[in-house]
Specification:
With about 300 residues, the chain is of the alpha+beta class. It contains 10 helices and 11 strands. The strands form 4 sheets. It has a 4-stranded mixed β-sheet. It has a 3-stranded mixed β-sheet with strand order 1-5-4. Strands 2-3 form a two-stranded antiparallel ribbon.
């Protein structure tokens, strides 16, 4: 059954890290097993809010959850992945609960023996790092890409989904596609570090895109209309009379697509007023007349 981790913590999807931590602290204090002995309903609620916090407090996991939603997220992340590197001990120690985060995991999530003593878990395999170069437009719009991988002496081909709006240097985690564990534990993960090629027409600044649009000198003076290429189609826009070279015209929502809970960026058409290199005799005479009139 699909979950909404934000709803579990009573938050909007725009909640920041501080709000997420505050909401979890409040609920964890209420439903912690030490305050609700032999209360299965409170125990299940505590499991639910702790799982939500383990995802939303981790920037990488949160990004994947926001991008793909609950169902696709859980195809990529097991419960072991969700709680890996989750540090709840400090929060529990502030409450004065004994045992800290590790004992809570042992008691609630079944990671120990019946005596409450934790058994050592087999070591996870080594994580692999691979640099993946993708085209500019795919980085903006997202899509699937094939990745060739050699691991554990075998060649594999992976179909990797590139989330819309991925940024240079961002790492995508492919769970279980790293090195094998030397002691029978889970395999490591594959980390894909994104490199993005340039584009001859567009440049990116955060969530906004910029493209240069050329108009004639007369169009800048008298006004005109011009076709602006977007990432997926083209739009005709009006240019007001008196538009200056370097002016920007905003096409709202035509930039980097928005992720869950956030709006899309904008596309800015940067006006470039063209000055002709050569003029006909008629054009020269007309311009001289304009010059004499004070233009």
């Amino acid at each position: 059954m699909a979950k909404d981790y934000y709803a579990v913590l009573g938050l909007e999807k725009t909640a920041d890290a501080a709000q997420i931590k505050k909401a979890y602290r409040k609920l964890a204090l209420k439903y912690h097993p030490d305050k609700n002995p032999d209360n299965k309903q409170a125990e299940e609620r505590f499991k639910e809010i702790t799982e939500a916090y383990a995802v939303l407090s981790d920037p990488e996991k949160k990004q994947q959850y926001d991008q793909f939603g609950d169902t696709a997220f859980h195809k990529r992340f097991s419960q072991e992945d969700i709680f890996r590197n989750a540090d709840l001990g400090d929060i529990f120690r502030e409450f004065g609960f004994g045992g800290g985060g590790d004992d809570v995991f042992s008691q609630i999530f079944g990671r120990g023996t019946t005596t409450g003593r934790r058994q050592p878990r087999p070591a996870k395999g080594q994580d692999y790092l691979m640099r993946l170069t993708i085209p500019f437009r795919q980085a903006i719009l997202g899509g699937d890409r094939r990745v060739d991988l050699d691991r554990n002496g075998q060649h594999e081909q992976l179909q990797v989904h590139i989330p819309a709006g991925v940024e240079p240097g961002q790492k995508l985690r492919i769970a279980g596609k790293g090195g094998a564990s030397p002691s029978g534990g889970p395999a490591g993960d594959l980390m894909l570090e994104i490199n993005i090629t340039g584009d001859p027409r567009f440049r990116r600044e955060g969530k906004d895109l910029y493209t240069t649009v050329a108009i004639p000198f007369t169009g800048a003076c008298l006004g005109t209309s011009v076709v602006v290429e977007t990432l997926e189609d083209a739009k005709r826009i009006k240019v007001k009379p008196g538009t200056q070279n370097g002016s920007k015209i905003r096409l709202k929502g035509f930039g980097v697509p928005g992720r869950a809970g956030s709006h899309a960026g904008d596309l800015y058409a940067v006006i470039e007023v063209q000055v002709p290199l050569e003029l006909s005799d008629v054009q020269k005479e007309l311009l001289k007349t304009l010059q004499e009139s004070g233009l």
